Amino acid sequence: MKKLKGYFIAFIILVLFFPTGVLYLLAVFGVVISELKDFLLNGFGLFLFGFAIILLIISYSPLRISNKKVKKYLEEKDENAQ
Hints:
Layout (H helix, E strand, L loop, with lengths): L1 H16 L3 H15 L1 H5 L1 H17 L2 H20 L1
Helix pairs in contact: 1-2
């Protein structure tokens, strides 16, 4: 229980001082790795962990960010035209 309280405090500090999503994910992965070491040594656990990392990379990809910028630019252009 004491260990969980420490993780909770660390998580709150991260949320307050570093509100970027990437640092959060690093903190969460750090906790997950330390807690599930035995599971990750198992092949299936490693597969799931790799799959989760790939999904994260896809969700934070620059293509998606630029897509948002393009959408915003097109909306602004539309508003200016009207």
